[in-house]
Design a protein that fits this description.
By secondary structure, the chain is α/β, with parallel strands linked by helices. Helices cover 38% and strands 20% of the residues. The protein folds into two domains: 269 residues, Aldehyde Dehydrogenase, Chain A, domain 1 (3-Layer(aba) Sandwich); 184 residues, 3-Layer(aba) Sandwich (Aldehyde Dehydrogenase, Chain A, domain 2), CATH 3.40.309. The longest helix has 25 residues.
Length: 495
């Protein structure tokens, strides 16, 4: 199965994947996906409706109720998912370039992080499902044990900031534990999801096990995916506002939801930190992924004894960031996803000025030759704000850092927790006792100490507060994507 193209081979024609075949939208309507580097047209995409989503649910339901996938052993599914991972790796360069052109992600990150991590997600969960143990409790003539049958049909709604990697973070465990799935990729970034569906079928994934429906939220595609009683699980990554709507939609059917939502994570640097580590990791903590990272350390708290030195070094490092065409390996910061988001980011910087903040560096759209048609915003460093300012409290989701001073450990912890989000945190200190004290009281789903973006997939991932509900990863994914069943058997005495 190959991707359709229009008369211009650079412009792709993206259709749904339903029941193992390419499917036209019921209405025949399409929308465009464009390159955020120069706003050029990349493809025309099927605009799904509630009817398209319902057809996908029916295909996934049939594949679960009557197909082989849920009835395979974990080792049989493991073999197929490894084949899918092999296919991803053998098409790494193609997928990386699609991701870069569709999302603006720099090619080095797509090539060396996101696409390899997609393959690793598949391998990890395929192996985890095949090797996971079950509890058994013998007690005299009673034997009690646990089964983990698949939950059923999974709706997976993925975001645009790490399109294929986060889609695979949902699909890999859902499929490994025997479910069937419908993926709704973000409308801004459909290309890699569409290609992934083709590669999965080529690798031997049975028809109907993975369905992909393109389109928008609200009452369109997302409507049936969150309200249909034939859907057994919903996994979502995106904004808190959308997550709340999904939880409300799922409530009448009591459909379990795992939702990883927004973030405004604190990054705390103590005066005993190794600045040769803290500065570059803090730069990554806000500017990686073009600043469009849900767990970005976007509230940077620095102990006042080192604040002048840290701010000078941090600002200098921010000004060394190479903003440019994401297809160029020399680029370290690419464009934002679209004009509307560019306007939002710029609006928050203007708000920071109105709130009394000082823009130490950046603070403007980039209109240099070759970049003027794209959605580029300069790496921005802001000082002089309080933690209660809107700029420091609300999620900007862009390359904008607020730097705030603090005096004591207790103050740093209070500032970190004084925010409705609780997705992640960063901590830089050489005091091991302090690190343990801080992380035990920090309201965040993940805390990195003297590092950033290091992930062991056995650990839980998710957030507290307005950053979401539920956890995924390792055993936490198994609990969500299965229906744990207790069995107690009385053993009859011998005759």
């Amino acid at each position: 199965m190959t991707t359709e193209t229009t008369a211009d081979p650079e412009i792709r024609r993206i259709r749904h994947l339903i029941g193992g075949g390419r499917s036209e939208p019921v209405t025949g309507e399409t929308f465009e996906t464009r390159d955020p580097h120069d706003n050029s047209l990349l493809g025309t995409v099927a605009r799904g409706t509630a009817e398209d989503a319902t057809r996908a649910i029916e295909a996934a339901r049939a594949a679960f109720d009557d197909g082989p996938w849920p009835r395979m052993t974990p080792k049989e599914r493991q073999k197929i998912l490894h084949a899918v991972a092999d296919n991803v790796e053998s098409h790494l360069e193609e997928l990386a370039m699609l991701e870069t052109r569709d999302s603006g992600k720099i090619i080095t990150q797509a090539r060396h992080a996101d696409i390899p991590r997609t393959a690793y997600n598949l391998r990890f969960f395929a192996d985890y499902a095949a090797m996971a143990g079950n509890e058994a409790y013998p007690d005299g003539d009673l034997l009690s044990y646990t089964l983990y049958p698949p939950a059923g049909v999974v709706s997976a709604i993925s975001p645009w900031n790490a399109p294929l990697m986060l889609a695979s973070w949902k699909l890999a465990p859902a499929l490994a534990f025997g479910n069937t799935a419908i993926l709704k990729p973000a409308p801004q970034t459909p290309l890699t999801a569409s290609r992934f569906g083709e590669l999965a079928l080529e690798a031997g994934l049975p028809e109907g096990v993975l369905n992909i429906v393109h389109g928008f939220g609200g009452d369109e595609v997302a409507g049936p995916l969150t309200t249909d009683p034939r859907v057994d699980r919903i996994t979502f990554t995106g904004s808190t506002a959308t997550g709340v709507r999904i939880l409300r939609a799922a409530a009448p059917n009591l459909t379990p939801v795992s939702a990883e939502l927004g973030g405004k994570s604190a990054n705390i640097v103590f005066d005993d930190a190794d600045l040769d580590v803290a500065v570059p990791e803090s730069i990554r903590g806000i500017f990686a992924g073009n600043g469009q990272m849900c767990f970005a350390g976007s509230r940077l708290f620095v102990q006042r004894g080192i604040l002048p030195e840290f701010l000078a070094r941090f600002t200098a490092a921010a000004e060394e960031i190479v903003v440019g065409d994401p297809k160029d390996p020399a680029t370290t910061l690419g464009p934002l996803i679209e004009q509307r988001h560019l306007d939002k980011v710029g609006g928050y910087v203007e708000l920071a000025r109105d709130e009394g903040g000082t823009v130490v560096s950046g603070g403007h759209r980039i209109r240099e030759p070759g970049l003027a048609e794209g959605f580029y915003y300069a790496p921005t460093v802001i000082s002089g704000l309080g933690n209660d300012s809107r700029t420091a409290q609300e999620e900007i989701f862009g390359p904008v850092e607020t730097v705030i001073g603090f005096d004591t450990e207790e103050e740093a912890l209070r500032l970190a927790n004084a925010n409705p989000y609780g997705l992640a945190g960063l901590l830089f200190t050489t005091d091991l006792d302090r690190a343990h004290r801080m992380v035990s009281r920090w309201k965040a789903g993940t805390v990195w100490v003297n590092c950033y973006l290091v992930r062991d997939l056995r650990l839980p991932f998710g957030g507290e507060g307005r950053s979401g509900i539920g956890r995924e990863g390792g055993q936490y994914s198994r609990e969500f994507f299965t229906e744990p069943r207790a069995v107690t058997l009385r053993i009859r005495p011998g005759r």
